[in-house]
User: Fold Glycoside hydrolase family 65 protein from Lactococcus nasutitermitis.
Amino acid sequence: MPALMNYNKEKPWVIEQKGFEQQYLGKTESVMALGNGYLGTRSSEEESYIGEKRDTFVAGTFNNFDENEVTELPNVPDMWALEILINGELFSLSQGSVTNYSKQLNLKNGLLTRSFIWTFKDIQLQFKFLRFVSMARKHLMASQLTLNNLTQKTINIQIKSGINGQVSNEGSQHFTDGEKGLMNGKFIQMMPRTTHSNIQFIQTVHHLLSKSATERPETERRAFFMNYNFILNSEEIISFEKRASIYTSIDNDLKDKSLTALRQTAVAELQNIDKKDFDELLAESTNTWQKIWDKHPITIQSKNFKDQLAIRFAKYHLHAMVPAHDEHMNIGAKGLSGEGYKGHAFWDTEIFMLPYFNFTHPDIAKNLVTYRYLGLDGAHKKAISNGYRGAQYPWEAAKPADGEVTPIWGAADIVTGQATKIWSGFIEQHITSDVAFGIKQYIDVTGDDDFEEEKGDEILLDTAQFWASRLEYNSKQNYYEIDNVIGPDEYKEHVNNNSYTNYTAHWNMTYAIQLIEHLKKNKSPIYKKLNKKFNLVKLKEELEEKSTKIFLPQPTKAGIIPQDDSYLNKKLLDLTKYKEKDGVDSLFHDYNLEQVNQMQITKQADVLLLMLLFEGLFDKELKLKNFDYYEPKTTHDSSLSLSTHAILSADLGKLDKSYDFFNKAINIDMGEYMKSSDAGIHAASLGGIWQMIVMGFGGVRMIDSKLRIEPHLPKDWQHLDYGFDYHGESIHAEVEPDKLTLIKADDGQSITFLHNGKEYTLQNTVTITL
Assistant:
């Protein structure tokens, strides 16, 4: 039976793979990844296979392999693997026959289940593996193997299990081989330390076997195992349980972080749960997950069951990957599900994931924006290195103070065979206004005045100061411009006056002017503090002089806003065959980046993203013209692209097209293409799923600091229920094709919002005919 992703409306919380094929290991390793924000782990099989990626990561533990490599999240010594010998022969699904193979993730409680019947020679065994990362105890992981002998004779079983440090990040080894051994005679411990960042790890394992067995410890280089040998009688069922924990010297929930204290804490935790069985530990985690599901649940009545499953899939992964426990960390582009992008954070957070947390878990959102405040030193470092002032945020970020961590070299050029330089870390500068936009959105949605005064205003002024120093004066045209950049469309390098970059820089600068005026007029107590840092009078004068003269690309006679100075003069290419292929980057099987740079080909939404984020600047007719112009030229090779197109097309009344984009977007990870997620989950796309549903079809948006709600249901949806937080109030929305009902949870402050240009007040309940 070939490996196939399976979704069944009878299992409304389950994603499943039926059938096993070794070549498709990466798909379920990623899309069924487990995590709790502190740690994340790919769902690789317990037994080993060529081509697998046995990755486990702890958020924020960045290390660089050597001085010539950028920092990355290190792959932690593996604690899941089981080496099983059956009558002396190594168990593997690559030999014998396999029936009833099922691998599934229950999104509701994060339980991974793998089961099958394995027949080899005259042996038949029924396997069932269970595994979860605890959402209730952030350091804890647990697995259980149930083995049933279906053979009419006894079988000798040997299980080798422990901690294996013989892992790497694609060959880069990040750990020293620390002390390892048994604690109290039954707890395996390893104490690896990262090579450059000197983060101490404590990894502890405790085994529980339901029948007596001979036990033998085994030490290898960078590894420590226990070997269990026993006889499995005919029709006998045994269970083998493995409980594991990870602690580090940067954990913010520990006071004493000495090696001795860490070791004792880890052992004490496993001892304290010794009397709890697997189901009880799972129930703890399930209860914590349930609190997440109870906060603003989303219900979709659709002709297509997968629509409902998609939002559950997205929310599960967003919470499995977000480091809600520590403001010094952010969300990587692959979350904690793979080595792709080295665990680094991008603009993905502010533009695609932060909105979900702003509207549903503002406490988590506050940590994410505080991370950017803590990153000001790194942003100053980058600006200074480039000859600018203010805060220039890194394209790729790791530890807040590190500054830029984008690798310099990438894949080989298909034409020259030479390594391609990654220019994003040098000239993809819109990240700075993206961070500012995210800060402003957080403040607008939450009304968090304390954050604004203590941190937010400083970021907004510091980023504006960067743009003021970044602008270049064109004396012939008497305007300021921004040359030699990469916009959101990364297929266009070294362009001048990218519309998205110029417009967002202009917004950043003009908002900073308004902010300075507001602080001064209201005699804000933080004016003095900020004035001391920025000299606000002088900064305001500079921003006013330059912002009025910044070049903002205007529509052509045909109504098209140029993506940059040269885009509309480039040659055209029919992209039909590339759009129809599975996967991404098929274009680069025929062309290199330099050739693509000379054609009207867009990787992802650029001008259209600008029109979505700043919709007040452009009328509907202009948006329609630009949508119809740019979408056929967009490959959607970035997972960030489809959600933008889905939301914008819903705004424009193209609901069939919007729903088509929605379905393509949810299939990036959940679809049948079995190689799409090998490097890890597409974190921004998951945030995009929530945005498509709540901000697109549900119509929730912040426009010029005002809440607007204008739903647009696709024809396949009969009903949509969702909720969100706004200024501390909890709001529930019920959308049907002909009406919108809003219900506020309590009698707190009234909420004003816009709908089709009219202002409404919500005190308890409001119903609007659509």
Observations:
- Residues 499-521 form the longest helix (23 residues).
- The radius of gyration is 27 Å.
- The chain has a mean pLDDT of 95.
- The longest strand covers residues 237-248.
